[in-house]
Amino acid sequence: MAVMHTSVDAEAAARLVAFGMRPKQLPARDVVYGELVRRYGEDNAFKALTHAVAAGLGLMVLEVTHQAGCVLAATDESVFEIKMDSYARQSKIRERRETEKVLHGLIHLAAAALGYPRPDDLANDTYIGRVSVEQVDAMVREAARVLDERAHDAEANNDPLADAPELEQAWRAYARRPAAAATKDGRMAADTTRGMVARALRFLADQGFLVQVSDEQGGTYRTTPRYQVQVRELAADAAFDDLLALDVVTVAGAGGTLRATASDILQ
Predict the structure, then answer these.
(1) Which pLDDT value is given to residue 258?
(2) Distances (CA, A) of 91 to 70, 108, 206, 214
(3) How many CA atoms are closer than 13 Å to the CA of 125, on its beta-carbon side?
(4) How far apart, in Å, are the Cα atoms of 11 and each of 30, 40, 53, 203?
């Protein structure tokens, strides 16, 4: 028997999707939002309607919980999809060449890997990771060093890496760029790697994925349930596993405090 939806139901489903498009809005802070999340979890017909409304907008519902709220992802060619060119404009990336875009992709990948370096971290809804500008920069630099060593070893054995040309260019471009430099007014220079990382983490904070907790280490952030849901999706990407497989992230202590193995060089 087909389920009949009223206009009131459709409006409620659309409102839940609308809440999900407000990154920093949480069910715990809004009675209406909280009630819609509760209904989503208890009413399968309303859940299906919500997914249908989202799909019509070019969105996919990843998860709806009281901790994370309604977490959405844009489908390919959706008007809501954040393409790298749009990200570049929002993050004020001066150069939008392909290598520059890949560098920012590496930064976001490293931030996710630092925030959730173990499968158990992604599975544990109570887990809160921490990342900092210096940690992310150190991790990418260490990964660049490891990959550079592998490329040299492969060349010495007359067995060049199959995907070496494009990836080597990106990693080496990052390694060649200065980590930090100050402008005349004392701010972090935008074209340094830490400047790039700082912009990337601020962007994630603006999207409700991170919350800044201090200015230490260039800016330290804690992860949010919303980010955890997104990283669960990212973890299915082979690039995420490849980065973790380099063993450039370690977990220090049972508390899960994270640091990059290259962090000693930043002290």
Answers:
(1) 33
(2) 25, 13, 11, 21
(3) 7
(4) 17, 13, 9, 30
pLDDT tens profile 187-224:
555 568 888 899 899 989 988 999 999 999 999 999 99
Residue whose tokens read 């972090």: 188
Provide the pLDDT for residue 176: 77
Query: Nearest CA to 17 among 62, 66, 70, 56?
Result: 70
CA 109 distance to own-chain centroid: 7
Q: Find the largest Cα–Cα distance for the chain.
A: 70
Q: Domain segments of the chain: what residues?
A: 7-74, 84-246
Amino acid, res. 143: A
Dist CA 128 CA 160 (whole Å): 40
Q: What is the pLDDT of residues 16-33, one digit of tens each?
A: 999 999 988 999 999 999
DSSP string over 50-96 = HHHHHHHTTEEEEEEETTTEEEEEEPTT-TT---HHHHHHHTT-S--
The structure tokens 């930064």 sit at 107
Cβ density class 10-21: b for 16+ within 10 Å, e for less: eebbbbbbebbe
d(CA 211, CA 205): 6
The answer to whether residues 71 and 229 touch, using CB atoms and an 8 Å cutoff, is yes
The C-alpha atoms of residue 49 and residue 45 are separated, in whole angstroms, by: 6
CA 170 to chain centre: 19
Tokens of 144: 């660049």
Across the beta sheet with 210-214, what order do the strands follow?
130-132, 220-223, 210-214
The string of pLDDT tens digits covering residues 236-267 is: 665 666 666 666 554 433 333 333 333 222 22
